[in-house]
Amino acid sequence: MPRPENRLWAYFYKGEKQNKSHFKAYCFGCIKNKAPAHIKNEPALDIKTMKNESWYKQDAGHVLGVKESMVAHILRGERPCNHASKEAKKEATIERNKLRKQGSKRGRDSEDGNTDQGEEDNTCVASSKKRQVVDLREYKQSTLDGKVFKDDVIPSAKQLSTSLLDAEYELVEEEVKQDVKDKDVVLTCDGVKDISKNSLTGVNISVETQPHLIDLYNSTPDKKDSLSMCESFEKMIDSAESIYGCRIIAMGMDNDAHQGQLILHDYLKVNPEANQTAEDATDLVGWFNNHGREIEQPLRIAALSHRDDVIAAQVGAEKNIRNASVLCSAATEHLDLINDNNFWRHLHSVVEDLEPICYTTNIFQSDRARPDVVLLAFVGLYLHFKNHTDKQLSLAMTKQLEKRWKSFDQHLLIAALILNPYKRLDHFGPDANANPFGLNSLISEISFGWLNDLGEERRKCLQSVSTAVTHYLAMTGPFQHWPEQRASWEAIHGNDPIIFWQQMTTDGRTADLAHFVLTLLSIVLNTASNERSFSDLKVKKTRLRNRLGTPKVKKMIKVGGRIRRHHYNAGLRTRCKPRKNHSEERLSTLLHVPQYAEALDGPDSDIDDDLHRRSPLVRSRREWRREFIKWAERARAEDSGDDDDNEPQASTVKVVDTLDNHPSHTMQESRFTRE
């Protein structure tokens, strides 16, 4: 009876013979993808009858016409062929399982053949009825009464890595499908190299700030050009929506925390003194191992009073003259650095600038980094450098931050900040051009891509959102009682805007806007969940376990994450408390973004309304002269015992105007001071 033909030939074109026994196999999917335009546009052309065509032999490529090679081409071990049909992948999976069963069966037969070594078996019995070796139960003497036996229900390592792992993985998949079904989610992806130098891509979805790993695959053979990457992203979105039944509303391509790292790089680039100070401090930390602000004085005292003892301890019992000289030079260099006042002054200045950058980076990489939170943190960092005492550094850093700002989705961040009922337009000044019509158009434009309805229903929903935004900006209609009830509401529920908009979903006038805002505020602008999955990957796949396949590692990561979540919910594990790297007093002003009303509430707020109201921050020499003159006027008024407060202010205004408009204001200032 002849051997049955390989069923995979239905998805391959049989070419000429590659050797005496096998033909060349050309994948139909690859042929269709590489076909010229005139062939793709010919619907009646049958690819199976293309005997006279030769272009596909060079463009499409071929494999050996055997079952193993054809399965490997379609499935590629871990990543399926991008152009093969679903039927071809299904058939290849069936054939691969058959091949695996045949291999495992041969392995079992070989093991069974060795089970009875050392014993003569003269009986002729079938291989399936061979006598099995019975493992004796292990036991050990215990302090308890009786003997403790090895329990039969303890699974073996093979069971844990196969059947039990697969069963738990199915439970994880069902839980994720229930959590994200019919919900708006954000998809993020990132890449990493494992211990085997394979390029792995992790795909996560985040729903209500809760991340879930949905895919981890080997992307080493994938092309990295723009069109291929676009196709990969489209397949990620289609696969997530078809398997998990969710709606992808946004896709994160980069981690906002990386922006914080790039800002740190910009700071060290534009400030050479800070870069050198950081290098010196790093070298000093490596030499002293541990130091900080609280031991600065003891270090300096020890370096000054016990200099010879420190050098002697550094050199120790080194007999080699050259090595002793090197150790002595290193100790002298570090001791001189400790005694250098300029080093500590520069170090304190650098720390003052690095602290807000690090704090911003920590905010960006949080799982609850809402768009409005990200915007306020970035603006706070911008204001820190804008008001910096070093004007050259201020100009350079603000320029770099403006470049970083261009990489953000600005409309999304601004809309999220405006729709935060605890912020609204409080941080916008008159030059921001934040008129109600422009803001309504901005929010309506963003919500247009969020709506799933078509035709008339889409227009009605968009109209409802626009009307609700108008009421929200004017604090009328369903929002008219919010200003007076805000304090009591905030005392009970805190300042979480999500709770506010969840309540507004019960009002038919604001339901559409509330659902849109809840979706907007649930967007997480980072790939921190991907980074944590990659860290777990590095723990599981090590140098000694580098033969773990990517599909199994993905299952282990997802099952391990489910076990941790259940342990946290059951109280079996305690969550790590966040580290306090910044003092509470420092946090209140670290990235503070003043509201416009705060800027108006300055010492000259009771001056005539025609005067230009200025920020209370002193940013220039002219403003410093103004403050000095007002201080002098107040001091004179107190010395003379004059109770009229308006008169000195009027004279101050007159003098300030004179100084601002007169070309020789420096001379006038000196005369005024002498008087």
Automatic annotation (TrEMBL):
InterPro entries: RNaseH-like_sf
Sequence ranges of Polar residues compositional bias: 664-675
Biased composition (Basic and acidic residues): 77-97
Residue numbers spanned by region Disordered: 77-127, 635-675
Superkingdom, natural source: Eukaryota
Residue ranges with Acidic residues bias: 112-122
Full protein name: HAT C-terminal dimerisation domain-containing protein
Species for this entry: Tetrapyrgos nigripes
